[in-house]
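Notes continue from the previous slide.

Worked example: a multi-chain complex. Inputs as given:
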Amino acid sequence: MSSAVLMRRLQAQFVFLFLIVTYSQVLLAADLDALPEFLRSDPFGAIVAPDRSGADLASSLYGAKHQVVLTGCRGGYVSFHLVVKPPSPSTFTLDVTIPDPTNKVQIDLFREWFHFTDSDKRYYPDALIPVHATYSSRLPEPDNRIPKQTAQAFWVDVYVAPDTRLGIFSGTAKLKANSKITTLPIQLTVLACVIPGEDVVTIDHNSYGSSWLAQQFAGSYQRNSDDWFESNQFFELIHAYHRVFYEHRGIFHQLGYGHSGKVGPEFAPVLEGAGRAKHITSWGLYDRHYGPLFDGTAFSASRRGPRPIPFVYLPINPEWPASYEFWGERGYEAEFVNVVSEMERHFREKGWTHTNFEVFFNHKKRYKGFPWDGDEVRFPKDLKYFIEYGRLLKEALPADTPVHFLFRADVSWDMEQQFKVLNGVVKLWCAGGGILSLYKDAPEMLRNRGDVIWYYGGPPSVTDSSTAITEFSLRAWLWGVNGYVHWLTVSPGEDPWFHFDGGQTALIYSGERFGVREPIPSIRLKIQRNCLQDLALLDSLKRRKSLDSLRARAARSYNNSVLDDWWNSRPALADLPSDQWLGSAIDDATKHTQQALGHPGASAWYKVHQYAMSLQAEAK
Amino acid sequence: MKTVSLTGIFMFAILGIAKLRPEASVTMQKELQDVAHVGSVMLDGDVCQKIVTEQAKGFLFATDPRDRFLAGDNYDVDDVAFNAVKKTLTRLSHLASFPADVNLWMPIEGHPGKIQLVIRNRNEMSQFWSWGELYGDMLPQMETVLKTGRRVAVARKPGWISVLAPIHNSLGDVVGLIEAVSQVKVDAHENVK
């Protein structure tokens, strides 16, 4: 046999062996599958219906050797799902690792809870239960109680620290089930790019009061119900809520008063006296609540590092600190000015000068507490109250104060008028997204005069496409506004675990039923965080490419839209006084964007991410 | 028939009050009776009738399948009348030695059996208001106050007590009622939302 023939035979044998190995890996991997973050599995191993439009992404994570191929910048996360599908009901152990002696690459593993939604009688994964990188259980998962469950999904967050070395890291996902071991190799390529720590849009997660904490952490509350709202546990829990949003590149707001002005004790200092004698007697609960948030120490152990919260609601409302029975009289001004001056002094002495303290009126006259709308003014006559509070605030604060008091207004119907009439009074605008879409020039006009402009809406349901949550952040960036507010994010309903309402008022859950004394995140929150990483990266390239071209390309990648599709024309309706508008007419006026944008498919953000990564490659 | 229903109402009220701690019920009921009595004298029914605007009244029962907030979005008040009455309600609440609210309720012309809360106050207490509702069904006790002009004490929820009292206008008609209300144990976090 000639050497050439021998070589050919050896090559043929090698190819044959290679094919066997590869084929066997495909088969083995059937027990353990990796899916991109935008494809959610149900408890039977199928992709949930709303994500099937992106089914072509299913193989996008895999390299030629059927290894999971991940690529990411430093200072952020790369994420994917692992789906365990043993051939028969059995116990299993999943182990995920990417060894890094320097510990710059870290893995966070979460078990995905399958929520049963009453609306369509289906299961969707959303709540993420933190588990150890080696996780053992059995199928069906005992606590999720799903008859005939055949698959369990896990969310894998790979954190890449900003100072991680460049190059390739190898790891594995290993499944042991029925005494069979299945191994899925993981290859992580760390690029030179570093995701900016600052976000280009502020994503806010709003909430009201704190009584819901006692309901969602009922076990903790019941053990100490008399003192729970003054306990360390209570304040640590509040700080944990701030932390989970901060770690996901967001911020958290808790409004501390009701529509008639009742203030929760932990949201305000204690007052005594009346008229010119009204004053603060104690900062005890307030400082325990907010001190670690204003100096940043509440975030000391976080990956993003300690940082003061950038925004907070003050307890100021028409009934606090001044009593409304004195409205319009000298006593009201005295009470307001004295107490707000004391607050400014306290914040200044504490060095709390990195947070914006919001003077914000949330009440509506339909809730019968006060005769004017503080939130979403519809009747122009109500604006005189804002002007008066602007005057009182100016009276209370030293002109050169280093403490940032910010008059905020949440606006919808009358926003166009308010932008004019309250110029110089209101500095933080939170605008309804539908009506703001009628005023294309507003964001730039407001930013140019030094105001902050956010818009608001609510989280998508878990029954929407996985990508739906990315639309809010993208829209904020395309519009050129400073942020977006999810109006309610901590209210998952009476029974989110077995009779879920879809989660349009929740992006996090109580971890108590899983032995976690803190809130736990959701898939939607993770996808939103990863989207914010990409936006920060894209925006950081505006020195090399114009911001308009970056935005235009991102919009095209997302849903084949052009930038104008994200705006509506100012309708004739806008010339009428806002108290003559009808809600249905606003729907008509905003039809264009609804039709032009439609619902983004599950692969929409994947394409934007690919665009962002391709620019990084170009930059290199 | 009228006598029977009135007897039933008073029995209900008495039985309801029995749910409170005896010492609390006696003290609180007495003080709230005094507050309500003074309120009946002090409040100007003509001003109360001017609070809800014609636009708000026109939309109160309006519905539109495309606009579920139609009535609420058109709810409006005359702020001068509102402020005048609210200030009086707040001062009335100071007569009690414990945290209390005095709320204003008005019947809705042309809609017998319906009533609306018009002014709430700083402790956010009411036994009868379902959070967020623009109007609701009139309770028999409220109807009694409006028809007879007499005060009625009610304890529907454990630990709560309200005294309802009439408001008169310059014609001598009973045009609304006040709810002087408190709780034995105040929940500092309730309704902070």
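Summary box: Confidence is low (pLDDT under 50) at residues 1-18 of chain B. Residues 2-183 of chain B form a domain with the Beta-Lactamase fold (CATH 3.30.450).
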